[in-house]
């Protein structure tokens, strides 16, 4: 028979700890339960201020919503959350503020209903002040309850800590020493020796029971040890699978960083690798505005699993989605993160190339302005002096001077156009906006009506392609303005049946006989060269009903 059971001593100590925990927690929960509707009460009380001002506004403007707003205010001021403040444990200051608020409203409500609004308008500031005092009292009451909760929890924690300290001391005195044999046995088990010497299982206390349990445990551990070896083999297989996943991600990283696969050509190979390794039906990469790559066989009515490709700014850079019977979330998340970084790097490189091109063009424009433009101005001054020195009777000399003057005028005009070209903005994100800007810039130079119709391509063009397209269109429009004598110039955009981009500039003017009849018209030659840089074709034809049609056809970006 046990004189002093260790378990009973520990049980009493634990029971005391539980009692203290229950008391402190109960007090805290009781206080918190009384605070459940504090937020609602403060919110409703705070809304009374706005409703009071709304009633004053309705009263001053004769609003038909006055009865409805009075009813809403009545419902708010008598809300259950506020009515609960009349309980006995609520501080007197809170109840008095609430009663004063009710009494004031009971005096003002009949006057509002009777249409006597002047007194309410005079008293609304005082009434709102009463509401503010009531809200402040509610706040102080809520803060007091939180203080009680913190104090009760702190006192309970201190008492529990003291009791735990006493319990640990008791355990050290009554339990630790008898457990030395068990500790020695545990060392043997640690060395995987489950057949150590027998423990004294005849002790007439809990330690004897513990020795019996320890002996039984060692036998069970021997069995579990064998099972664990098998489990380790299974985990090793799982680690090998994880290693294969990491190998796949490494290969994808190599593909994405390969300089031979720039410009988006690496994405199909990455998706092929993921399709093969992850055993997917299909996988698709969507990177707005123009990238959509699908690999595999899409199965109808099969659910698409999706992962957003989030950019560093928080915006969505695209989406990765796939169809599979079973997929590995960690693998797909790693692949999505890798594709996100690749898209960010690609777009950053495009911006850098864009800025370099604009800087180079601006530099050329400055050099032309500071050198050739100044020389042309000097020649203009000299030709003016020459005109004054040549006699009016000397017709051959006058003709030569006139020809030089016309040549200088043409050179000045061409230089201005060249400077405009180099300073041409390519900031718009889409082709339609850029073309509209060109039309808007040139419209003041002609009385003809200029229209932009059709659906411009929404695909992405790099800075060089953007400049070639806009300059071809600009040159064609300038030719129509200067030489066609037209009343209408139409710029049409669209796509051919095979997906090529198509831009057409037509006018209803006098038409153009043939480009060969203008041997010194270098603009047409430059337009042809720009079209070749786009891997496209430029055609100039005479319209059946009169006028000229300039057609630019070029493949989609990346084709």
How many domains? The number is 3
Mean pLDDT across all amino acids: 76
Query: What is the tally of helical segments?
Result: 15
For the sheet with most strands, the description reads:
5 strands, mixed
Strand order of the largest sheet: 5-6-7-9-8
The arrangement of helices and strands along the chain is HHHHHHHHHEEEEHHHHEHEEHEE
Q: What structural class is derived from the secondary structure elements? A: alpha+beta
Structural summary, described in words:
- The protein has about 550 residues and is an alpha+beta fold.
- The chain folds into three domains: about 5-175; about 240-345, Beta-Lactamase; about 425-559, Heat Shock Protein 90 (2-Layer Sandwich), CATH 3.30.565.
- The protein contains 15 helices and nine strands.
- It has helices at about 5-35, 40-60, 65-75, 80-85, 90-115, 120-175, 180-190, 205-255, 265-275, 330-370, 370-390, 395-420, 430-440, 465-485, 520-535; strands spanning about 280-285, 290-295, 305-310, 315-325, 450-455, 490-495, 500-505, 535-540, 550-555.
- Strands 5-6-7-9-8 form a five-stranded mixed beta sheet. The protein has a four-stranded antiparallel beta sheet with strand order 2-1-4-3, covered by helices on one side.
- It is flat, with a radius of gyration of 44 Å.
- It starts with 5 loop residues before the first helix and ends in a 5-residue tail after the last strand.
What's the layout of helices and strands?
Elements: H1 6-33, H2 38-61, H3 66-77, H4 80-83, H5 92-113, H6 118-176, H7 180-190, H8 206-256, H9 266-277, E1 282-287, E2 291-296, E3 305-310, E4 316-323, H10 329-370, H11 372-389, H12 395-422, H13 431-442, E5 449-454, H14 463-483, E6 488-495, E7 501-507, H15 522-533, E8 537-542, E9 548-554
Parallel strand pairs: 5-6
Antiparallel strand pairs: 1-2, 1-4, 3-4, 6-7, 7-9, 8-9
Helix pairs in contact: 1-6, 2-3, 2-6, 3-5, 5-6, 8-9, 8-10, 10-12, 11-12, 13-14, 14-15
